[in-house]
Write a structure and sequence with these properties.
The chain is elongated, with a radius of gyration of 20 Å. It is built from 9 helices and no strands. Helix 1 packs across helix 6, helix 4 runs antiparallel to helix 5 and helix 5 crosses helix 8. With 206 residues, the protein is an all-alpha fold. Helix content is 78%, strand content 0%. It starts with a helix and ends with a helix.
Length: 206
C-alpha cells in the first residue's frame, strides 16, 4: 500500500527541515545524506526517493527557507498599508519587522550558504536573490510609490528609495552582529530601526 499523501508531505517537510539544519551546521560539502537521514529520523533511501540526490535536496532546502523568508518579509512590508498620521511610526514598525527577519538565525545561515555555494550553484541566485530579495524590494517600492502619490513622501524613483531604506537597516545590522556571529539585543534593533527611519525621512519626507 502506498504511503498516505499527508504522511508523504509531513515526511518531506521533516527531511527539508533536517537538511537545512545539517547544511547550515556542516556546510554543503561536509554534510552527508546519512547525517540528514539521522537528523530527520528517516531511512536514507527515503531521502533519495523524495529528492533524487544531495544537490537536489540542498536546493529544495534552500528553496523552502527562501519561501518562508519571503512570506515573513512581505508580511512586514504590508504594514505600510496601515492608515495613520504618524508615518514615522509606521515605517519604524515595518523596519523593526524587517530587521527581525534579517537577524533570524536561519536567515543568517541562508545567506552564509548562498555566499559559500553560489559560484558552484548559480541557480541559488534565482532562488534567494530573484525569488526572495528582489520580490520584497519590488513590493516595498510599490508601497513607497503609493505613499508618494498620497503626498506623504517626496520620491521620484521608488526602486532606489526602497534600496536606500533596506540598506539603512541591513548595513548596521551586518556590522553590529559581526556578520551574524553576535545576537543583536532588542534595544539595538530598535536603535537601528529608529536611525534608519530618521535618515530615510530626512531624505524623502515632506
Amino acid at each position: 500500500m502506498s504511503e498516505p499523501r499527508r504522511g508523504r508531505i509531513d515526511k518531506r517537510e521533516a527531511i527539508l527541515a533536517a537538511a537545512f539544519v545539517v547544511f547550515a551546521r556542516e556546510g554543503y560539502r561536509a554534510a552527508s545524506v546519512d547525517t540528514v537521514a539521522t537528523e530527520a529520523g528517516v531511512a536514507k533511501h527515503t531521502i533519495y526517493n523524495h529528492f533524487g540526490d544531495k544537490e537536489k535536496l540542498f536546493l529544495a532546502a534552500v528553496q523552502g527557507l527562501a519561501d518562508d523568508a519571503l512570506a515573513k518579509n512581505l508580511a512586514a512590508v504590508e504594514l505600510l498599508r496601515e492608515d495613520g498620521d504618524d508615518l514615522s511610526a509606521v515605517l519604524e514598525k515595518v523596519g523593526r519587522r524587517l530587521a527581525e527577519c534579517y537577524c533570524e538565525e536561519r536567515s543568517w545561515a541562508l545567506r552564509r550558504l548562498l555566499q559559500a555555494e553560489v559560484l558552484r550553484m548559480p541557480q541559488l541566485l534565482e532562488i534567494v536573490q530573484d525569488g526572495t530579495s528582489d520580490k520584497v524590494q519590488d513590493v516595498l517600492a510599490d508601497r513607497l510609490a503609493r505613499l508618494a502619490l498620497a503626498g506623504r513622501l517626496r520620491i521620484t524613483d521608488p526602486a532606489t528609495a526602497a534600496e536606500h531604506f533596506a540598506a539603512l537597516l541591513t548595513a548596521p545590522l551586518e556590522a553590529r552582529s559581526r556578520l551574524g556571529t553576535r545576537p543583536i539585543p532588542a534595544n539595538e534593533l530598535a536603535e537601528v530601526t529608529t536611525g534608519a527611519v530618521r535618515v530615510f525621512l530626512g531624505a524623502y519626507g515632506n
